[in-house]
Each structure stands twice: as C-alpha cells, then as structure tokens.
TrEMBL record:
It comes from Diplocarpon coronariae. The keyword Signal applies. Keywords: Signal. SUPFAM superfamilies: Oligoxyloglucan reducing end-specific cellobiohydrolase. This is Glycoside hydrolase family 93 protein. The keyword Signal applies. Gene3D superfamilies: 2.120.10.10. It comes from the Eukaryota. Residues 1-22 form the signal peptide.
Length: 390
C-alpha cells in the first residue's frame, strides 16, 4: 500500500517538473556511437609508486565522451613538491585497458589540486562553452591544508589539455570537523541553460556543515549560495551530495530528481556513521523542501560517501543506482525511488570511498572505478558489468 501511495505522489510531483538536469551516463543532446562492451573485473588502472603518501589514491571519477572514450581521474597523493594534481587516464576499449593521457594542474593558486575531483561533459552549450566541453571541478588546497577553493577547469580537445575556467567558492582550513570553514566535494550538472555546482559548505556559522549549490549562465560568474540541506541542529553534517534524474518514463511525463548524501549525525538504525539518505524533488534546485528518506534494502543500510546515477534500462521507469563506501554491492531501484523498493546486488568491484558508478552508452552496462578506502594503501582499478536484472 505504501508503495502505491508513493508512486501516486511521485506521478503528481512530476507534473510540474521543468527542464531536465543532465545525469551521469548518456547525456541528453550528445549522441554517442554504438559500442560493444565486454565484462572487465578489477582491472588495475594505476599502481602508485612507493613514495606516494597514504592513502596514495582516493575518490575516483569517470566520464564517457561522444566517441565512446572513457576518462578517469582521482585524488593523487604524489610527493610534494611539485604540487599535487589530478591525473587523467583514458580508455578507448570500454575499460579493458587504460593509459595516462594528461594532468590537470593548478594554474592560479600555486597550491595544487588536492581533493574531490568531479568530471562532467557538457550536454549542451552553456554561455560560450560548447557542447561536449569537458569540465573538471576540484578542491585546490595548499600542502598545509590552510585553505580550500573549488575551481573549475575546461578541456575542448577530449581531455588532452586543460584551462582554468572559474572559481566557485572559497573556504578555510581543510579539516572535516565542525568549527573550521572549508568548502568540499563539488558536483557538476546542467539544468536548463545553466551550469549548477552542488557542494558541501562549512562557512555558514549557523551550520556545522550544509549542502548548497550555485548557478552560472556561463560557467564563469556564479550566483549566490542556495541551501539544499541545512539542518537546524548545528552539529549535523550532511555531505557528499550527488544528483540523478529519470527520463520521465513509466507514465511519469516529466523528470524526477534524486539527491543522495551522507547524513553525519543523523539517525542511523544500523549504528554506522554517516548513514545514506536521499530526497526526491520536482526540481533539482529545490531539495530543501523535499522529504528525506533513509536508504536501505530490507534492513541493510548504506553508509558513507554515496553516489547516484540513473540508467534507462531495467524497466519502464529505468533504474536508479547507488553506491556507497560501506558496501561492495550496489543498491538499485526501479520504482522511481520508492523507499521500500531498493534491492542490493553484488558487483565485481571492491568497496571504496566515494566510488562512482557510470552508466555507459549502452545503458545495460555499468562502469565502476575504485581508488580505495580512506585508510588504505590504495591503487585504482575498474570493473565493467551488466546492470543486474530484478
């Protein structure tokens, strides 16, 4: 009964939904060539040298280009000097083999590009940025961790060269506890004709940490801070937001948007730190008013550093797919995010901090690149596998 009521609510909610927010996988407006994929199981992409600082690698991200090329990056704990950077590795055979392609280096601060990269391909032009432009947002932080700055770089040649585009937000010391004022964890998307950056913000004295976003019509000049999740309890630490949208299938005429996040200090029936929660909204710019749900499959609860994506495969509604640090499995939902309809499926890839699932150009196939756990002696690997069937 609850499931039927939930679907009815979602259908009503979707009536008012406006322009699409692009999500991971096949972006609206970009036509990708057909590719044939084959399973890949924990293929090593990068093994750090022995002089790297632990955890050596962390926080991996991928995108697929129009021609099928895959790009991957991660936090890279190379010895300093020189300043740390985000490596770009490339695969032209569906994730079977990878090679170093370029580096994204700090060109404006002299600090390095240290934490939390996010890769994104523009599905349409934004200002003077052409369709297909690759963007990388990341946290520029000096070696002493005294400052944080979310900067964006752009590539117009498939990821070979990168130019500084803009700064989104600045903050204080990179310390993930209440009191310091850093900014963290940028996440890029397009909504309508604008570029949106979601991020975590500790600079508001009313909140230990909150989730918010800024909007830009050109990727250069950014609007004011808009709160997405900001609890009245100062001690709460919602973080690591990612957003996915459905296509409007399954009798829902418009798109739905889901934001997943870790809820530091929130109710955790499993006892795990940073339980994963999510919200469903008619607009990706208005999660603040949406009810929140804890994410679980049966009595199995996800925790820590979630990411979400959506595939058009898996049924009339498509499939929302969530990964988190607590599990090697993925949690999938073919019922428009109904809280009672999450199902857990195994993957060939190990659990990893902020592990991203990417839907490939054939929506039946998924890519996971892992860069290891927080306290690991890590390397980077990937797996390619078919979307599990319900």
């Amino acid at each position: 009964m609850l499931g039927q009521k939930f679907i009815a609510t979602i259908v009503a909610l979707a009536i008012s939904i406006s322009p699409a927010l692009s999500a991971p996988g096949v972006e609206p407006g970009i036509k990708q060539r057909a590719l044939t994929y084959a399973p890949v199981t924990t293929k090593r992409i990068f093994t750090p040298p022995s002089d790297y600082r632990k955890p050596k690698t962390l926080y991996s991200r991928t995108v697929q280009l129009e021609d099928g090329t895959l790009l991957a990056t991660w936090e890279n704990y190379s010895p300093e000097p020189p300043s740390v950077y985000f490596p770009i590795y490339r695969s032209t055979d569906g994730g079977s083999t990878w090679s170093e392609y370029s580096k994204v280096t700090d060109k404006v601060n002299g600090w390095g590009l240290r934490y939390q990269p996010d890769l994104f391909v523009l599905p349409k032009a934004v200002g003077k940025l052409a369709i297909g432009t690759i963007l990388l947002a990341g946290n520029s932080i000096p070696e002493d961790l005294s400052k944080t700055k979310i900067d964006i770089y752009a590539s117009t040649d498939g990821g070979l060269t990168w130019d500084f585009l803009s700064s989104v937000a600045e903050g204080g010391k990179a310390e993930p506890v209440n009191g310091p004022t850093p900014v963290w964890e940028p996440y890029l998307r397009v909504y309508g004709d604008d570029l949106v950056v979601y991020y975590s913000d500790q600079s508001d004295p009313a909140h230990g940490q909150k989730l918010c976003h800024k909007i830009s019509s050109d990727g250069v000049v950014w609007g004011p801070v808009v709160n997405d999740i900001a609890y009245s309890d100062y001690a709460r630490r919602p973080g690591m937001a990612t957003v996915a949208s459905s296509s409007g299938a399954g009798g829902v005429s418009k798109r739905l948007y889901i934001m997943t996040y870790e809820n530091g200090g929130g109710n955790s029936p499993s006892g795990k730190d940073f339980p994963v929660y999510y919200r469903i909204s008619a607009s990706p710019l208005n999660f603040a008013e949406a009810p929140e749900h804890i994410l679980k499959a049966g009595e199995d609860y996800l925790a820590s550093s979630p990411t979400i994506t959506w595939s058009s495969a898996g049924g009339e509604n498509g499939t929302f797919i969530v990964s988190a640090n607590s599990h090697k499995e993925i949690f999938v939902n073919t019922k428009l995010g109904d809280p009672l309809e999450w199902v857990k499926y195994d993957t060939p890839q190990s659990a990893s901090y902020s592990r991203q699932v990417n839907v490939l150009s054939d929506p039946e196939w998924l890519l996971i690149v892992s860069a290891g756990p927080l306290a690991g002696d890590n390397y980077v690997s990937n797996s390619v596998f078919k979307l599990p069937k319900s």
